């Protein structure tokens, strides 16, 4: 147990984690609270009281786009959709060349759901961006910044932080403000992503020891780890997070992880109310937020079960077709 505790503090909480809400006192001790915050929120999200819980840990695979290479030979190939190519052309919204940023760099953890939320926005709008994968131990890649969490997005030399704020500010920069439709509804569901959806994901992806190992296999395969760090993370991390998932269930009053996940998926599809997207004929920021957060888990067992037992798969298919190929470029 002492060995697990050492991993717990050195690996899963590699840097300082800050939670501004006093309600987290109910989670237990300081180190426990840090770990739960990191695994639950990833790097940035707003609890219901709007206080920010921010962590430098990459292990929230909740929501996390956890499509392990061992589970799928490639995200695009594993999920095939029967949508016409015209749908992609209609949905895409590249910014006007006069508003297109010249240099965009994303500092991220590959498995972080909030980093994936930012990438969904960039990919959908065909904004070219470079990626710098941050090592969760040393965080040397972001030593230049006073902000020690991810995602960090550098846009033409300006630092943007916190996934929702990044998307808001970047939307303004590329002049999307005038295109907002149903703004109140969109804002409501963006909050729902940060305040509810993310809470049901971690208990699901760490639900069993085999699912925890599957999740960490993706994290360690795609993250910036040394060989030793990768081995430590996969096996010790999976064991610790399996135990932590039980605490998360109690914290959020979840009795059945899968039922909570399915209910969240059904809540979202009910909100669509027969529309292709919440935004109507095209995805809006809420669509992109839900899609980005779910993309890391789509091909994990939790994500596969969710698609098999709810109607969210049809919307997800439309979203993947609409978002299209990644606009990431080589650094």
UniProtKB/TrEMBL annotation:
Entry's EC annotation: 5.3.99.3
UniProt xrefs under InterPro entries: GLR_AS (IPR011767), Glutathione-S-Trfase_C_sf (IPR036282), Glutathione_S-Trfase (IPR040079), Glutathione_S-Trfase_N (IPR004045), GST_C (IPR004046), PGES2 (IPR034334), PGES2_C (IPR034335), Thioredoxin-like_sf (IPR036249)
Annotated GO biological process: prostaglandin biosynthetic process
Keyword Calcium found: no
PROSITE patterns, alphabetized: GLUTAREDOXIN_1, GLUTAREDOXIN_2, GST_NTER
Gene Ontology CC terms, in alphabetical order: endomembrane system; mitochondrion
Pathway it works in: Lipid metabolism; prostaglandin biosynthesis
Keyword Transmembrane helix: yes
Catalytic activities: prostaglandin H2 = (12S)-hydroxy-(5Z,8E,10E)-heptadecatrienoate + malonaldehyde; prostaglandin H2 = prostaglandin E2
Membrane topology: Single-pass membrane protein
GO MF annotations, alphabetized: 12-hydroxyheptadecatrienoic acid synthase activity; prostaglandin-E synthase activity
GST N-terminal domain residues: 102-178
UniProt keyword terms in alphabetical order: Fatty acid biosynthesis, Fatty acid metabolism, Isomerase, Lipid biosynthesis, Lipid metabolism, Membrane, Prostaglandin biosynthesis, Prostaglandin metabolism, Transmembrane, Transmembrane helix
Top-level taxon in the UniProt lineage: Eukaryota
Location within or outside the cell: Endomembrane system
Pfam (any one): GST_C
SUPFAM superfamilies named among the record's database cross-references: GST C-terminal domain-like (SSF47616), Thioredoxin-like (SSF52833)
Family: Belongs to the GST superfamily.
Protein name: Prostaglandin E synthase 2
């Amino acid at each position: 147990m002492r060995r697990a505790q050492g991993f717990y503090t050195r690996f899963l909480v590699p840097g300082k984690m800050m939670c501004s809400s006093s309600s987290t006192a109910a989670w237990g001790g300081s180190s426990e609270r840090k770990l739960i915050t990191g695994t639950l929120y990833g790097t940035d999200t707003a609890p219901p009281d709007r206080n920010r819980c921010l962590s430098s840990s990459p292990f929230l695979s909740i929501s996390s786009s956890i499509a392990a290479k061992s589970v799928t030979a490639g995200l695009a190939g594993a999920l095939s959709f029967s949508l016409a190519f015209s749908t992609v052309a209609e949905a895409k919204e590249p910014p006007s060349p006069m508003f297109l940023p010249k240099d965009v760099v994303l500092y991220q953890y590959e498995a972080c759901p909030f980093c994936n939320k930012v990438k969904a926005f960039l990919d959908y709008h065909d904004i070219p961006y470079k990626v710098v994968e941050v090592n969760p131990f040393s965080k040397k890649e972001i030593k230049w910044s006073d902000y020690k969490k991810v995602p960090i997005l550098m846009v033409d030399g300006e630092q943007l932080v916190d996934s929702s704020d990044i998307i808001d500010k970047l939307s303004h920069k590329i002049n999307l403000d005038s295109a907002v439709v149903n703004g109140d509804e969109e804002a409501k569901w963006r909050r729902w992503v940060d305040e509810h959806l993310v809470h049901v994901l971690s208990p699901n992806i760490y639900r069993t020891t085999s699912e925890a190992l599957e999740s960490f296999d993706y994290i360690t395969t795609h993250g910036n780890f040394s060989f030793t760090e990768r081995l430590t993370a996969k096996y010790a991390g999976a064991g610790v997070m399996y135990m932590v998932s039980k605490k998360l269930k109690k914290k959020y009053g979840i009795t059945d992880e899968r039922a909570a996940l399915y209910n969240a998926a059904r809540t979202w599809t009910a909100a669509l109310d027969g529309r292709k997207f919440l935004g109507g004929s095209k995805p809006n920021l809420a669509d992109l937020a839900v899609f980005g957060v779910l993309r890391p888990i789509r091909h994990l067992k939790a994500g596969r079960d969710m698609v098999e037992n709810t109607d969210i798969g049809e919307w997800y298919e439309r979203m993947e077709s609409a978002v299209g190929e990644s606009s990431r470029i080589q650094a």
